[in-house]
Amino acid sequence: MLICRRTFLAGAIASTACSLPVFGATASRPEFFKGSIEDNGVSFRATNYRKIDKRWRRQLVKYTSTEPQGTVVVDTKNHFLYIIFENQTALRYGVGVGREGFKWYGVAKIMRKAIWPRWVPPPEMLVRKPELPKFMDGGPDNPLGPRALYLFRGGRDLGYRLHGTTEPWSIGSDASSGCIRLFSEDVIDLYQRCPIGTKVLVIKHLGAPVIDESAPADAL
Amino acid sequence: MIPHLAGRLLCVLLVSIGLAACSTSRNSSPSAPAADLTNEPDSGGVNVQPGSEKDLMVNVGRRIFFTENSAALDETAKVTLDKQAEWLAQFPQWKVKLQGFADEPGSEAQNVAISKKRAEAAMQYLVSKGIAPERMFAKGYGRDRLIQDCADLSCKAQNRRVITNPQDAPET
């Protein structure tokens, strides 16, 4: 059965750090925003949930699994992120996923968290989009949004984050590029619920095989 | 090599039709949730009753977390407690039990002591935010009711917690 696991792992090795959405899009779709929210000294535009399909909104759902409470499970195909609660329930959030972006599947841990994170575009993205800044301070126009949760494996930063967005319409879709993004309101909420050390499973869809945590570390 | 190849082909086939049959070590794999149950809305889905226990779970958050051997409230814990204080002020019919837990190196007695300190720290903070101490009860459970028992931080982090547990159905 070892062969089997390796076969599956092969798809996971072909991962690159995910990139992020384009700039300047916020102004173009004002109908997706309503009012503003103050957070840690920064004012950002609140999501207009009347424009958002209910299924992408944060809600308690039934969830049968053996995963312990507090685990985060990302179903990339169906655009849901779950945090496991007690009594066979989970809190479910809608997410946006990169079309070419989140090719990595597996088990990781949140080992760093940031409020109004700054953004350093990865070198390969700067090649693709030379007009991007080399560095961007955290703030309402930063594509990471108000929070970022950084995924690590074996003590190494995987280059993947759970973060907010300046493009609420991209939740529930495979955006042009991107990590796992949530509504800004939701990533603020999730940040509160995930201590450093929180386990994150990124899977293709619920019920799909998970890369075994005991897989050789050098495979990743 | 024939069985080897056959095994690989079988595996690819199994993976391709989406069966979680690959790994014999399933300790980190979620079981396949029953499609007819998972994702069914619980307690009204997005329309949670304000002031209900589920409202506290979904819109406030019942848990705060701690680092090893510490009962100090970090900024994140304070933000959650601020929201809890707001909620408790808005819905005065509730009393809450603040349940502290621990998963530290050391004796059971030390674990009970630190878990109690955690619950009391949460209570003192809520009192400082205007919640009457008569509405609250702090208790330490030590290493009882571990979420999961393992040496890794992913287990420890979840176990080192205080849960704000509403008591008694509210009078309506």
Describe the structure.
The complex is a heterodimer of chains A (220) and B (172). Chain A has 220 residues and is of the alpha+beta class. Chain A is 13% helix and 31% strand. Chain A is built from three helices and 13 strands; from the N terminus they run αββββββββαββββαβ. In chain A, the strands form three sheets. Chain A has a nine-stranded mixed beta sheet with strand order 3-6-5-4-13-8-9-10-12, covered by helices on one side. In chain A, strands 1-2 form a two-stranded antiparallel sheet. Chain A has a two-stranded parallel ribbon with strand order 7-11. The longest helix of chain A is centred in the first third of the chain and has 12 residues, at 2-13. Chain A is globular and about 45 Å long. The model of chain A is unreliable at 1-16 and 213-220 (pLDDT under 50). Chain B is an alpha+beta fold and 172 residues long. The relative contact order of chain B is 0.15. Chain B is built from five helices and four strands; from the N terminus they run ααβαβαβαβ. Helix content of chain B is 39%, strand content 12%. In chain B, strand 2, helix 4 and strand 3 (136-140) form a beta-alpha-beta unit. At the A-B interface, helix 1, strand 3, strand 6, strand 8 and helix 3 of A face helix 1, helix 2, helix 3 and helix 5 of B.
